[in-house]
Amino acid sequence: QVQLVESGGELVQAGGSLRLSCEASGHTFSSYAMGWYRQSPGKEREFVAAISMGGSNTYYADSVKGRFTISRDNSKNTMILQMNNLKPTDTAVYYCAASGRLLGFLGGDLDYWGQGTQVTVSS
Prior knowledge:
123 residues; seven-stranded mixed sheet; mainly beta
């Protein structure tokens, strides 16, 4: 049983930066690949980024490559999404997710979800 809580979403101007955090409960954080999805009005939830259990491998959607950076600190049960050069198209609810395997993020089959945090980028 894992609970995920996101934080850090807020209103920001285009070109600005935000840092989203996801804190996981329990002591098995390192047993899960972690990642982020986002969903904007009228669209399906889309993959943003993922990171392997040990943090050695990272994957990004083409739309965020070069702008977003995913990281994790297993000692703190925390995953971070650093978002730079934000665009209005980045506006969405961002969800933290966990999977027992990294491939779960490619197929959209995740084990746990957070409640989401709203990111709004104004033009």
